[in-house]
Amino acid sequence: MCLAVPMTITTIDGFQCTCEAKGIEREVSLFMLQHESLEPGDHVLVHVGYAIQKVSEEEAADSWALFDEMLAAGI
Amino acid sequence: MTRGAADWLTALNELGIDRPVRIMNVCGGHERSISAAGLRTIIPDTVELVPGPGCPVCICPEEDVYEAIQLALNEDITLVAFGDMLRVPVNVPKREARSLEQAKAAGGDIRPIASPIDAVRIARDNPARTVVFFAAGFETTTAPVAAMLAEGVPDNLLVLLSGRLTWPAVKLLLDSGTPGFDALIAPGHVSTVMGPEEWQFVVDEHDIPAAVAGFTPDSLLAAMYSVLRQLRDRRHFLDNCYPNVVRAGGNVEAKRQLHQVMNVVDANWRGIGVIPGSGFALRNEYAAHDARNQFRSYADASRKRVGEMPPGCDCAQVVLGRIYPNQCRLYGAACTPRKPIGPCMVSDEGACRIWWSAGYRENQWDGRKKSSAGG
Ligand code: SF4
Q1: Would the CB atoms of A75 and B354 count as touching at under 8 Å?
Q2: Residues B273 and B209 in one domain
Q3: Which of these, B33, B187, B26, lies nearest to A67 by C-alpha position?
Q4: N or C: which end of chain A has fewer CB within 10 A?
Q5: 3-state class of B73 per DSSP?
Q6: Residues 6+ apart with CB under 8 A from B193
Q7: Which ipTM did the prediction report?
Q8: How far apart are CA B34 and CA B40, in angstroms?
Q9: Is the sign of the CA dihedral B332, B166, B37, B18 positive or negative?
Q10: How confident is the model at residue B197, as a pLDDT?
Q11: Which domain holds residue B123?
């Protein structure tokens, strides 16, 4: 439950936003990141539907590669 | 393996660690990455990687799971919980519901959710019905529950909170005098929220090297290199090997919300007992949303094996890093992910399940289960 996944913000409406990663869309809350200025195209680390941190594009790409490996390994 | 990981591995090998060193991780996500990447097989034989208290589902009090089951069966409510919680077994006679999954089969209105957002939506869509959100988790998962309540939820949404803090369990191990590890890899996403400073005590009070790691092999190997080098040079400090994500002070807003909604209290860990200052409880201001406040308690102290792990299950020893999963007598025998006996085989973050999924098939139970890996 503690694993967070980076996603890309597509649309923002108040504290709610839509995020995308690897073709999957999710409704995500930005309530825990209300001190950050965020806009579509930014990457956030999402945990149980809540963005917990803003991350760079490189950081997001690293994590996506990791998840591909873990999926392939079935773990 | 990436270039970065290969470089870290070379550097790590060149340290020439010639005495046994045990490095503990306290995060199911770390253990999953370590097992998936097979890091144990490529680092020097002298270095052991020990999974520690990294699974909130595994240590969620048996009494709380029992309470959730009873609420779902006896009160006119809908119970929602993270999916992992549904198969966690409690100790009851055979004819009674042993898990939320069985309570659901027996007619309880129980639904798995993936996010607090789902709980709010279900409550909003069913205004005439009371919805109880059974929320177990470490800081990373409890903070969103606090955020949900801080933002405001419908009147008919209550929370049965079983949130826990990770570091007090590590403190418990260190204070025990036989911690069973020489260095610590601190959790990446707990530190993202709470700040890396939470782990400073490991260095300051116990003189144990520590490094916060992310979840890629690069970051994990960097953290291992860091703590091994600290041990070699006898210069111990708290390193941050996940600096792009873990920032000083953590997520300040998230911590403010946690503090606004919850108190830190002494809390019970399944099979382990009460650990001081290791749990979250809702503040009085949120009593109207506190399921513990709004329903009678179903606690029954006369229940057999109340609070304990299932018979024969060594999860508590596994969680404390005292034994490896495959040193449990039942590992791979009676207990597999398809037919789990204990919570460590149920949860995605349980070391038993991770090890089994990663292909560790050998059972090394040797009849001396209590102390083979630890201290
Ligand atoms: S193998 Fe099964 S019974 Fe043994 S400690 Fe792990 S979960 Fe418990």
Answers
A1: yes
A2: no
A3: B33
A4: C
A5: helix
A6: A52, B139, B140, B143, B250, B251, B254, B255
A7: 0.92
A8: 7
A9: negative
A10: 97
A11: 58-165+254-306
- Residue A49: which pLDDT band, with cuts at 50, 70 and 90? very high
CATH of the domain at B80: 3.40.50.11740
Q: Is the pLDDT of residue A70 over 70?
A: no
Contact of B55 with B319, CB cutoff 8 Å: yes
How many A from CA of B318 to the centre of ligand 1? 8
pLDDT in tens, B294-320: 999 999 989 999 999 999 999 999 999
* Residue B145 and residue B136 in contact, taking contact as beta carbons nearer than 8 Å: no
Same domain, B80 and B50: no
User: pTM to 2 decimals?
Assistant: 0.94
Residues of chain B with pLDDT under 70: 1, 368-375
B68 close to B97: Cβ distance less than 8 angstroms: no
Flag if A2 and B216 touch (Cβ within 8 Å): no
B126 and B215: one domain? no
In a domain, B369, yes or no: no
CB-CB contact of B71 with B132 (8 Å): yes
Q: How far is A57 from chain B (nearest CA, A)?
A: 11
Kindly state if the Cβ of B315 falls inside 6 Å of ligand 1.
Answer: yes
- pLDDT tens-digit profile of B61-108? 999 999 999 999 999 999 999 999 999 999 999 999 999 999 999 999
B100 lines ligand 1 (CB under 6 A): no
pLDDT at A74: 64
Q: For an interface test with A, which of B189, B257, B356 has the most A Cβ atoms less than 10 Å from its Cβ?
A: B189
Same domain, B9 and B124: no
Please determine, for residue A67, whether its predicted confidence score (pLDDT) is greater than 80: no
CA distance B255 to chain A (A): 9
pLDDT value at residue A75: 59
Classify residue B301: in a domain, yes or no: yes
Domain of residue B205, CATH code: 3.40.50.11750
Pairing of strands B273-282, B262-269: antiparallel
Residue nearest (by alpha carbon) to ligand 1 atom 3: B313
Region label for B359, one of left (φ > 0), alpha (ψ between -120 and 50) or beta (otherwise): left
